[in-house]
Structure formats: structure tokens, C-alpha cells
Design a protein that fits this description.
Structural class: alpha+beta
Helix content: 25-40%
Largest sheet: 4 strands, antiparallel
Radius of gyration: 18 Å
Distance between the termini: 17 Å
Number of helices: 7
């Protein structure tokens, strides 16, 4: 293992609002080594979430992003230059994010179990039956009560804490 797992270099993010650009992040740089835990802290509105969202190209279209987001140790790739198809193969599979507000992150018309299964089927290529068993196992790992019951429930039927645990299971199920 040669370099950092993730390297952010001179990241700048602006939003186009009615033809005017407003700065959200200016020349942000940091590195994360494999196995290292990094916390990004700051005041509300300082660019923490925008920085995190930029890593997986989850910013809205009106965002203007400059700099480099290099991922990988031996052969790094600039995540900002990847096609939609390629970044989708990395999201949830190699890099996962647990969002602050689980209710806006979970699809209200799909059961919680089906949402986690979707990630497994997309990235791990097993059968629906295998994905169902793995999802229930992940619900057990994140200490959800009645994992089989939670599998069949919709997000609005869960508490905020339970929704957050579903999001953690979804982020971790492909072992990024």
C-alpha cells in the first residue's frame, strides 16, 4: 500500500444561484489512510456536508466543482472525472455514506429490507434469497429489534433511531 486511500486536493465548490456563483468550499485539502478515522468538524454552513457529497458526485447539477478527489492506493482515480456508470459502481460498494437525516435518504415507497437488498443485488450479484438473508443478518448486526419484521416495514413505520440503523446496515452491507 503506497499512498492514502482518499486524497482531496484543492477542492473548491461553488453554487450557481441566478447566474451568481457563491462559494461553499474553498481550496480544501486532506488525506485519509486505509483504516484511519477522520472527522470533519466546523460550524453549520462551513461546507462539511458539501465536501462529503462531492466525493460521490451527489451534489446538484448547479454545483461547480474544481480540484481533485483521488480514490485508491496503488492506482488512484479522480472521482470527479468518472462517468455516471462508473461512480455508481463505487457508491455503496467501495465508498459508503451514512446521511444525517435518514427519512430523506430512505425511499418511502419501498420496504426497508428491499432498500438494503437493492444495494446487495447491485454490487454483490447474489440471488434475491441470499440478499434477503444477508439483509436480515445486517439488521441483526446493527441491533434492530425484530429484524424480519423491520425487513417488511416502510420507513414511516420506524422510529428515527431505527431508520438510522437501517441506513447504517445499507452503508455497510457491501463492506466498503
Amino acid at each position: 500500500m503506497n499512498g492514502p486511500l482518499l486524497s482531496i486536493k484543492n477542492l473548491s465548490i461553488q453554487f450557481n444561484q441566478d447566474g451568481a456563483l457563491s462559494n461553499a468550499v474553498s481550496n480544501n485539502s486532506f488525506e485519509v489512510a486505509a483504516g484511519e478515522l477522520v472527522a470533519i468538524v466546523g460550524e453549520s454552513g462551513s461546507g462539511k456536508s458539501v465536501t462529503a457529497l462531492s466525493i460521490l458526485q451527489l451534489l446538484p447539477k448547479q454545483a461547480v466543482v474544481n480540484g481533485e478527489i483521488l480514490f485508491g492506493q496503488d492506482e488512484s482515480v479522480d472521482l470527479l472525472k468518472l462517468t455516471h456508470k462508473k461512480i455508481n459502481s463505487i457508491r455503496g460498494n467501495k465508498i459508503a455514506m451514512i446521511f444525517q437525516e435518514p427519512m430523506t435518504s430512505l425511499n418511502p415507497v419501498l420496504t426497508c429490507g428491499n432498500q438494503v437488498m437493492e444495494a446487495l443485488l447491485l454490487h454483490k450479484k447474489g440471488t434475491r434469497g441470499e440478499a434477503r438473508l444477508q439483509t436480515i443478518a445486517w439488521f441483526e448486526k446493527v441491533k434492530l429489534p425484530d429484524p424480519e419484521g423491520i425487513f417488511k416495514r416502510y420507513p414511516h413505520q420506524l422510529s428515527g433511531e431505527q431508520k438510522q440503523r437501517v441506513m447504517i446496515a445499507m452503508a455497510m452491507c457491501c463492506e466498503p
